[in-house]
Structure formats: C-alpha cells, structure tokens
Write a structure and sequence with these properties.
single chain; mainly alpha; 3-stranded antiparallel β-sheet; 3% strand; globular
C-alpha cells in the first residue's frame, strides 16, 4: 500500500474555518448521515448507494486526518482527499472523478446549511475523467470461459444462475435483485421486470424500466434447475419470493456483487493468476469479501457493458437492445458500445454478405 502523507496547511493566525461558518460544530459522521437521509427520497437507490460509498470513504479520510468538525473542511482537505482516493483507494481516474463530483454535491449541501465556507465548492478543481468508460467490460471469450467453469463445477448454484442471467440480459444488479419467482415464466422463456419502490425493490429508471425480457433456452434450463435444487425457499419482509434470496430474505446488492467479483477472478476458473501473485498470500483469494481487490475481477456493470457489446457484435439493432437493456440509444452509443473499429467493420462485412 502506498504510504499516505498529510500535506501541511497554512492557516490565518487567530482565524479558523469554523469561525468563518458561524462557529458551528458538527461531526463529519453526523453531516453525512443528515445529507444521506435528506437525499434518499430524491434520488434512485443506486445513486444513494453510490453516494453512501463515496462518503464512507470520505469519513475514513476524516478519521486519518483527525478531522472532528465538518466546518473545518477547507480546500486543502479536498485536495488531500483526492490524493488519498487515488493513492490509498487505488481507484481509476473515472471513479475518482465521480467520487469528487459526489463530494462536491455533499459540500454544496453543507454550504446550504452554513457548515462550510461559501467559496469551497466554487473553488473545487475536479480531476479529468478520462475516456476509459468503454474499457472496463467482460469480453465474450472470458464470459464463455466462466460459464463453462460454472457448468462443470458449480452447476445451477446461485452464482451460476446469477452470472448466466446477467450475461444473457445485461441487467443492472438492482434489476436482478428485484426479480421474484412469479416474475419468471419458464415455459414462455421470459422474465417480467417491475418497479416496486414501496417494497424495497425500486428500478433505476422507475416505471420506465418495467418490461418483459426474453431469455435464451440455456439460461432457462439453468434457472429451472437452480430453483429446483439450490434456491433457498424463503420470503422477504413483504412476503414475496425473491429469485435470488439469502438464507433470511432478499439478498442485498453487495452480496450479489461479491458473487460476481469472486467468479470473475481468473484464479477461480483457471487456477492461475495472470498477475504473478501467490494465491496463498493474495488477499483477493484468502478474504471472501476482498475478491474485488483482484485486478482482473469485475463488478456486474462491466458484464452489462460486455453483454451489450456482444449483442451488437452479433448484429442486433441498437433500438431493440435499447428496450431490452433499458438504456437510451444515445447512452448506449456513448457508454456501452465498446466495439473496436475492426469489430464494426467485420460486422458490416457479414451484414452485406461480403464474406
């Protein structure tokens, strides 16, 4: 781990940031708690979750800095947090950009509450987001390798059924979590997607995300056997039967992500590490909840991006995929079409019968 060095600060003698904000006192934990509580009804569940994750990292930073009063946050803290996330957090520049945007929104809220100086938000300098939003994806060859492994060694387990459904549909993880047994139609081979915010299963785009999605027969075979053999027969707090439950009720998103992080580690499916690590010493192998520390593991979203790219390479139209994946054509082209120019050219060759 890179050693984090605190940068010394220059202060005006006799004047503190808290004196410039009416001498208020509020612990960072309390400020974050109030902010998240206020924003929860205003944003989607996924946005609220992402804000909570970023601000939890900010609270860790505050602990390192021994920052006990949110009113004392200044430009140096903002700068140091950016360095902290880049060096200690090990995140890429796109994620860092999103983290700093979230921090800016939070500090803007603090400003509205007279907790920080008025110029703090205005003077924030965001890192360049870069242009690698298309790069993080699971390619079709790797997906086939994982599916072959699961077919042989973990057939019809929750992990197998989850990965197969994500790859076939490109669903968001919140969409998968929202599916009930009654939403799945085995004989007709499709699944219904419903927005049920009052029962803890909202969809990112609300009722606009409600739809019926066809499934391939091989996915239905896995789902049928999973339901028959391995699914926990439990209900959630609303007496609904989740497709992917825990032993006590509906599985939380973090547990579903953890399954994907673990199964996408190369050592899990091949027994070999492309990064030259000793598995007996690798934290991503030894610690169940640290699988994401593997440089080659991916979260569900790169599976979504890889699935959409695969469907495009198979020659399916963007308009049809837009409905299936619940994403606008414009957003699909900007963030999810990860095809190379060569792949596009080869597809055009096939479509025009030039092979």
């Amino acid at each position: 781990m890179v050693k984090y060095t605190v940068i010394p600060r220059c202060t005006t003698p006799g004047v503190t940031a808290s004196e410039n904000t009416m001498s208020r006192q509020m612990k960072p934990e309390r400020a974050v708690e109030r902010y998240l509580k206020e924003r929860k009804p205003e944003v989607s569940e996924s946005t609220h979750y992402n804000h909570a994750c970023t601000l939890n990292a900010f609270l860790e930073f505050c602990e390192v800095e021994e920052l006990d009063n949110i009113c004392d946050v200044d430009g140096f803290h903002v700068h140091d947090f950016k360095i902290y996330r880049r060096e200690v957090g090990g995140i890429n520049e796109v994620t860092l950009y999103k983290n700093m945007c979230t921090l800016r929104v939070f500090l803007k809220w603090c400003q509205s509450m007279d907790l920080v100086n008025s110029g703090l938000v205005q003077n924030m300098i965001l890192p360049e987001p870069g242009d690698d939003t298309r790069d993080t994806k699971l390619d079709a060859e790797r997906a086939d390798q994982i599916l072959n492994y699961l077919e042989k060694f973990e057939y019809a387990t929750l992990r197998h059924a989850l990965f197969a459904l994500l790859w076939d549909t490109g669903f968001r993880i919140g969409t998968v979590r929202a599916i009930d047994l009654d939403d799945y139609h085995s004989e007709e081979q499709y699944v219904e997607i419903h927005h049920r915010p009052e029962e803890d299963t909202p969809l990112k785009n609300g009722t606009r995300a409600e739809r019926e999605v066809n499934l391939h027969s091989w996915v239905c075979e896995i789902l049928d056997d999973y339901i028959l053999i391995h699914r926990n027969d439990v209900t959630d707090d609303y007496d609904r039967e989740p497709m992917f439950p825990s032993t006590q009720g509906r599985t939380v998103r973090s547990n579903l992500r953890m399954h994907i992080n673990r199964v996408t580690r190369p050592c899990h499916t091949t027994g070999e590490c492309p990064h030259g690590r000793e598995q007996s010493e690798c934290e991503a192998v030894q610690e169940y909840d640290l699988a994401s520390k593997c440089p080659s593991s991916v979260s569900p979203h790169p599976i979504r991006r890889g699935a959409i790219t695969h469907w495009l390479n198979e020659g399916h139209g963007k308009e049809l995929l837009s409905d299936r994946m619940n994403v606008s054509v414009k957003t699909l082209e900007k963030h999810y079409d990860a095809r190379t120019e060569r792949e596009k050219r080869e597809l055009r060759r096939r479509e025009f019968g030039m092979e």
